[in-house]
Amino acid sequence: MRPLILPCLLAAAACTTTPRPAASPGAAAEARSARYLCSDGRAVEILYGGDGSAVLTVGSETVELTPTAGGGWTGGGWRWRADGPAGGMLAHGTAAPTACRAGG
Predict the structure, then answer these.
(1) Which residues constitute the signal peptide according to the record (predicted)?
(2) pTM (predicted TM-score)
(3) Do the domain assignments include residue 4?
(4) pLDDT at 7
């Protein structure tokens, strides 16, 4: 029975984990930004947070957005729905959405 002790101890040691410190809220690995140019001429920048949130900047206005159940974000009267890295749709208030393309 003695030969089984070492393999069992090694297996148990392999399963333990060392706690890692929490990443800071502004860590680069958690967030990325993208710029878009909309068909109505607006330049838009969005900072996507690692927690699913987003920050929208349109002109001099910056608004925190929260994720919606439908896969978009809303906040401050704005609605944003990304269409992958190529672009998305932006709307304010009750206005119809405007198409935006990456690279703005």
Answers:
(1) 1-22
(2) 0.67
(3) no
(4) 42
